[in-house]
Structure formats: C-alpha cells, structure tokens
Amino acid sequence: MSAAPSIFEKLGFRKASGVGEAGWGHTLLVAIVAFIYFLPVLMIIFTALKPATEALSVPPTLSPTSLFGLIPEQFVFSPTLENFTSVFSRSMTVGGAPEDTGFDHFFFNSIVIASVSVLLALIIGTLAAYGFSRYPLKGNDTYLFIILTTRMLPAIVVIIPVILMFRVVGLSGSYIGIILLYTAFNLAFTIWMMKSFFDELSTDVEDAARIDGSSEVKVFLKICLPQVIAGLAATFVFGLILTWNEFLFALLLTGVDTRTVPVAMNQAVSSGGRGTDWTLLAAIETLFLIPVFLVTFFLQNHLLRGVTFGTVKR
Amino acid sequence: MSTIEIRKLTKKFGEFVAVQDADLSVKAGEVVCLLGPSGCGKTTTLRMIAGLERATAGDVIIAGKRMNELTPEKRDIAMVFQFYALYPALSVGQNIAMPLHFEKLSQADADKRVKKVAEILHLTDVLDRMPGQVSEGEKQRIAVARAIIRDPNCFLFDEPLSRLDVELRHSMRGQIKEVLSNLSKATVIVTHDQLEALTMADRIAIMRDGMIEQVGTPHEVFAKPANVFVASFIGTPQMNLMEAELKKFSDGVVSVTVAGNNVEMPADPAVSKLKPSKVMIGIRPRAFTAESKASRSTIGAQAELIEPMGAETLIHARTESGGDIRVVVPRAQRIKIGEVLHLKPDPKQTHFFGDNGKAVRA
C-alpha cells in the first residue's frame, strides 16, 4: 500500500506523485516564466495595498516589506487596507461624509448573473450537445455551424439589434434580460465543448446499459453524465470567466439595480472629475479576482482532466 | 423456452446493404457462432437481435415472441461487448449488479447474487476496485459476470476474446464454454477467429457480404464446405483451391487436368452432373500424401518454402503450371527446398465446386 494520504489528497487534490522528478534547473525555469505571467496580477494586488499617493510614484514602490533589508527603503511601501474599505464606502465630495457606494450590491449582481447564466447554459447546452452527439439530425453539422456563427461576430456588431430588441420587449435593465443574453452567448460554446466530450465516450457502454434495463433518461443521467464531469467543470469555468469579465453588454443592457462589477468599476474610477483613482481601481480588481480564482482553484483537478480529455488511450 | 430465431433479417444503411435475408435459429442450450471476415455484417446481425439496431426487414423472434419493435431492455437478453463496455464510474461489484436493478431485488439478495457470480468467474478479490484498476482478463470476466448474473432469454457475445492475448484467450475460451454449458440458454457469439468458432460453437454460421453462406456443425463446415468461400475461409493453412478441367467421369472415377497434370481419382457420383468444363478443386493441405514417384493419381510440385510448425511442417510448393500449393507433412518427413514432390490427394477430402462456386455433392 502507498503512504497515508496527505491533507491535500484528502481534500481531493492531485496526488503529489512525480513531484520533483524534473530536477531543479527545469523547475527554476518554469518558476521564472510563471512569475512573469503572474507579475501583472501581483502588481494589481500590491497597488491595491498602497496609499493613493504612491500609485504612480517614480521610482515605483515595489514591495510591502523590505525582505529583511534585501530591498532598499525607497522601494518599500507601507501596506494599507484603506483602498478596500473605500470600495464599499467613501465620501463622494471633498470633505464629505462617507457614503455607501453600492459595490456589495454590484458584486451580488455579478455573482448572480454570471452563475445563473452559466449554469443555465450548461444545463441546456449539455442536453443539446447530447442530442447532437447521439441523435444526429439530417444536416447535423449545418446546425452546429449555425450555432457557432452566433459567436463569430464581435459583441459590438450585434449590440445594436440586441439593444433594439431588448427595448421593444422591455428586457433592458432587468436581471432576466442580461441573464438570457449571457445564456444565449454561452450556449454556443457549451454545446460545442460538450458535444466533443460526448463524442469521445464509447457508445458500447450506453448500449450495455440499455440491455441491462436502463431507460434513455437513465442512460444519460447515470452513464453518460458521470463520464463527462471533467468536461462540465471545464466548460463551467471557461464560461464563468468569459461572463464574469464581460463589459460591453453589461454596460449597455444593465440598469442601476442590475449593474455588474466591470461596469461599476469603470464608473467608480472615472467619475467626479478627479482623474483616475488607481489604487481604488486596483482594490476593486483584487476583490473581483477572488470568486473566479476560488472556483478555478477548487475545480482545477477536473479542469486538467477536462482539457486533456480524449488525448489519453482509453 | 430460450430460443432465438431470425427470419429474412435485412439491414440497410442508406444504399449499403449490411445484412441480407439472414435466416438462423438457435435452440435452447445451443451455442451458435457468427463467423466471417470484418465488415461481413455479423455484428450488425447481433445488434439487431439485441435491439440496438432496427431491422430494415425480416423478423427477430426471441423465446417464441416477435421482438422487432421492442427496445433492448424489454427483450430480456444479456450481451457481452467487444470492448467490455464496463461502466467507468461504478466499481466492479456495482458493474456486475447493474442488471439486477431491473429486477428490483433487495440489497442483500443482490449482494448474494454478485458474490455467487464473482466466485464462478474468480472476481471476488476485485469487487471493490474500479474498472480502470483491473487487468484485461479481469475486465473480460466482469463483462461475462454482468451477463450471467440475471436469468435472461439468451446470451449474445460480440468478439468476446479479441482483446485478450493468446494465452489468456485460450483459457477464457474454455471458461466461457464451461459457464455457457451450465446455463442451457440460446447463445450467439460473433467472432472473426475461426479457431474460436470451431472450439466454442455447437454450430457455426459463416457470413460474407451480409449473407449467411453456410450453417453447420464445426465438423460439417470443415469437412463439407458448401461453397468456395467457406472452403477457403475455414481451416488453417488455407485449403488449396485450383482451377481444373473436367475431362470425363466413369465408374466413379474422374479424370481432370489440374496444375498441369492429368489426374485420375475416385469422386462423388454427383460430379458426373458437372459438364466437362472448368471446375474448381479444393484439397486441404493435410489431405496430400507425398509419393516416391509420379503416377496417374499424383500432382507434381517443387518445394519452395518450408515452414516448420512443430508437430508438422508446412511446405509451399510450385506446381508445373506455376500455381502455389500448400502441403502439410508430418515432422518426421524431411523435405528439402527444390525437391520435387509427387502429391497424391485423398479423394475423400477432395472437393469439387461448379462454376457457380457451390460444392458438388450427392
């Protein structure tokens, strides 16, 4: 038997087998490249912790700590959480009393709109993908192509008809409206992703289940779905990131009550004619990162299997 | 009664005819192998019996009931798939128990059944593992266990042993045969391996291009092939099929010109019905005796390639007319390359085929 599982394995994380096999040279190289990729995120987090006056100072302050004297004093800033509190509450006029900025509500909007629309797209899209994969229509590929065309145009091209339609049916500014729009947009992606996962499955297993007495519904729920969990997770995360960060539709189709964070972020830093408040922006961005980061982190095992699906011999 | 019958069963995929007018009936306790080269429609036939594929025409009758329109779960059959088709998300035990959900057994009864079947197939130790964690041979046995756990109308096997290595295939063949002989159900096995068919089947149905060419016991299809295709398909090394010219037939003796030799030999009286013309003669490689000198009943050929096969030696020889001839001789008979052989065919193992390819027999 292998050694007792570590705390990470118990939590369901990837087993630590093979770690360290690559040697220090390669590991260091990867660490450097990874650091370069991560640098912009790190800069945002540090900027969020800086006093407003130091946001654009030259030379820039680089680190919240001197690392035991390793970094010269002039590059060190003293971290503050002030920016984070002012995301939710700050004075809107010079010397005025702090006011509620409504950002808790905008975060709530973002979470509800993104998760509901991605889940809806996942449910509808998975069913559609299963249909396209298992019960092909005459001209199946044509339908799939038409579905994909909805994602071929940039948002800015389709925004005018969408705005007009939404105005006519009264969906502008409502939760339902933006959720439906995002669902429609995620559907194309979900159907294509999930169809490729279903195509990979061995239909023999489904036939065996039929012979063993399963109905078609049971074949789908009990046999097919458990095999594509990785695909569901990957599709969910990709869809979530796309929707979470979407700006243009949200700007034009949400109202005061349904405003999402990207739109609110834009308005928070550019209002008041005082120029851009960089540290406030960084603080909003940092908070904005957290939900997607958490979801991705907890689904990372499935994600990895999801993107490598079908590449390994069954 | 556990029987399977198919009548004029036909399957078309668009213009392509996969199976045409297949007739077959399998009695209770009988094992019938559908044997044929790949793409001959044998798996499609099996899938139509299972209900996984709809017949374009004809009838599927299981246990005396016409089942054409019924879905697989209503046909009460068990099937073992080529790639086993184990449920990847369920443990071995759950895999085997899956068909039992249909019968709404109590958990305790189901466990008992699983245990019993696992014992028969030596799977007791792996019941808690996942299908990904067991060996090929175990996967195969799990697939069989899942099929025999219920008491279905009949059993269907689709290339059950094709994924196993030679040694495992050999032992599984015996095991499956033993398990099946205790169940007395109608069983259909699809295979492209004639050894598998010859060893496991009570009767063999040989298929080509969607048609059943011959149905018979392993002995019948080997000793009395109905046509040229069956003759060439069954038996290793392959039967020698040579064009010959029929000269005359009198007093039970036929004279033919074959491979550049004029040969006289006793033959089936039915051969007399053939007009003097081109016919096909089939002689199995083991049906020759190498004589010391040429006579009116021998075919001359020069040994070109010698393949020792252990107990016997396979010789590829060239006849005087330039054709190939395969001969199997006992190991003790030493033959050198270049040596001229005088081969005397055994008349009882010599088959005559008319110009329609059908065997000529009384």
Descriptors:
heterodimer, A: 314 residues, mainly alpha, MetI-like fold, two-stranded antiparallel sheet, 14 helices, 2 strands, 64% helix, B: 362 residues, alpha+beta, Rossmann fold, OB fold (Dihydrolipoamide Acetyltransferase, E2P), 2 domains, 6-stranded mixed β-sheet, 5-stranded antiparallel β-sheet, 20 strands, 22% helix
What would you call the quaternary organization? heterodimer
What's the number of domains of chain A? 2
For the record, the CATH architecture of the largest domain in chain A stands as Orthogonal Bundle
Strand content of chain A: under 5%
Strand content of chain B: 35-45%
Largest contact between protein chains?
A-B, 15 and 25 residues
Brief sketch in words of this structure:
By secondary structure, chain A is mainly alpha-helical. In chain A, 64% of the residues lie in helices and 2% in strands.
Walk me through this protein's architecture.
The complex is a heterodimer of chains A (314) and B (362). By secondary structure, chain A is mainly alpha-helical. Chain A has helices at residues 7-10, 24-49, 82-88, 103-134, 140-149, 155-169, 175-200, 203-211, 216-227, 229-244, 248-253, 261-270, 278-298, 300-307; strands at residues 89-91, 98-100. Chain A has two domains: 21-80, no CATH class; 103-307, MetI-like (MetI-like fold, Orthogonal Bundle). Chain A is 64% helix and 2% strand. In chain A, strands 1-2 form a two-stranded antiparallel ribbon. In chain A, a hairpin with a 6-residue loop joins β1 (89-91) and β2 (98-100). The longest helix of chain A is centred in the middle third of the chain and has 32 residues, at 103-134. The model of chain A has no long low-confidence stretch (mean pLDDT 85). Chain B is of the alpha+beta class and 362 residues long. Chain B has helices at 42-50, 72-75, 92-97, 107-120, 136-148, 166-181, 194-200, 218-223, 228-233, and strands at 4-13, 16-26, 31-35, 57-62, 65-66, 77-80, 154-158, 186-191, 203-208, 211-216, 240-250, 253-258, 261-266, 278-283, 288-291, 299-308, 312-319, 324-330, 340-345, 350-353. Chain B has a six-stranded mixed sheet, with helices on both faces. In chain B, a hairpin with a 4-residue loop joins β17 (312-319) and β18 (324-330).
